[in-house]
Amino acid sequence: MSDLPPTSAPLPPMPGSRRAAAARSRTMIVTGAAGGVGTTTVAALLVDAIGGRIGAVVQASDHATGDLAARIATLDQATSRHGVHDIGVHPAAAAALAAPSENAVVVVMAATPDGIETGLEALAAAGSPASQPVVVVVDRAPRAAGVDDRVLRDAGASVVVLRRDEHLARPGRVSAQRLAPATTAAVRDLLTLLGW
Q: Taking the model in full, what pTM does it have?
C-alpha cells in the first residue's frame, strides 16, 4: 500500500458519522437509464472524489473497456478495497450487485422529459429494499435547463443535478482541477447522499 495520497483535488474532511462507513469496504454501482447519458463520466467523478475524501485510490472498472481509471487524468494503482463500477445500461442488475447495504446504486439519466421518464423505469429496476438509489440528472444544455425533478423526488429518490461543464463536454480524461465549481459542488452533494 502506498503512503502517497491520491492525486485528486482534496475535499473537506468527512464528518465523524461517516468515518466508520469509510473504514468498511464499500462499492458504488453506477448504472445509466440509457446509453450516452454520462454514466461513465459520473463514475469517473466518483472515483476521484471518493479517493480524495478517504485519502486512498479506489478500485475502478467500467462496462466497456474494464478500465474506468483511464478516464481520470492521474490515478495510481488502487490502494483501498473501495470500488466504483460503471455497469452501463443494466439497472436491473444494480440492486443485486450493490448488496450489502453499505454499498450504493447511482442511476444516471438525461435532463430531458424522455430522460426522466426512462430514468423512472431504471430507478424502479435498480431499487432494492435495502437502499434507494441516488439519481444524477445530467444537463448537457449550453444554458442551464429547468430540470423538473419533482417526479423523481416523489418516487422517493435523492437527486443531484449535474450541469454542463465544458471540461466534461470535451473528450479525454477528467482532471479535478479543471472542473467547474458547480460540478465540484454537485459531486460533493452526491458523496453526501451516498454517505461519504
A: 0.77
